[in-house]
Amino acid sequence: MKVLLIMQFFLTELVLAQHFSNYRALESSSSRGQGGRALNVFPSDEVEPFDPINRQYYQKVAVGQTFRSNNPWSGYTHWRYITVYNVTEGVERIRKMPFYKEDCHDRAIVMATWEESYHINVTLTAAANATVLGIGVNVSASVQHGVRFAARRNIMGTAGIAAIHYPYKFSETWEGVTWKQTYDQRTGTVSYVENSSVYPKKFYLNNQNPGFIVKRVITKVCDEEGNEAKPSDQERILQGMGL
Fold this sequence. Notes:
Elements: H1 2-30, E1 50-51, E2 56-57, E3 60-68, E4 78-93, E5 100-102, E6 108-120, E7 124-125, H2 130-133, H3 137-145, E8 147-157, E9 161-184, E10 189-192, E11 201-221, H4 231-240
Antiparallel strand pairs: 1-2, 3-4, 4-9, 5-9, 6-8, 7-11, 9-10, 9-11
């Protein structure tokens, strides 16, 4: 009887130790998007762009992959990351590309052309990789390899003004937080991990959806002789040009 009890106690301790080991491995590997992944058992993927810990709303929300919890005392059977973030658009001058000056008598469908290609680095600061966070395959690829940015733009000469044309790159920055949503399949309870020392985690991703624009700065409105037009005539001239 004693031998049986000892063996049963030993097996119980072994199972519990294995549970904790699996849970630690899950928590560690999930941050790399490996191991422990489960079918999505959450009642819904409709999640508000809301941080329940700091009670703050954001513009966007991304629902991450579902993982199992192997910790019998965690209070939940499954979990996933929820990332809430705001999107801001930034514009910056491409200094390596020249600007073009347009003079009063320049008239051409194509006065000049920019053509440039270069590499843009993408920075991700987050609780896990982009796949685990559920923010898309393209984002995951861009974080690993960056983005090849290619631009080709023609400039049209419009007689009647003097102007400078500047090339700009614009892109989005996603910034917010990631928190951990939980689900107990036994009770149907959806909740979240509330631990201010751990969650929410900072989320930051830059150089998304890059594009190319040209800003034209009119420096002078010209008269027929190519001189600067009188202030009283400038508005009429610009309207006649459709500007």
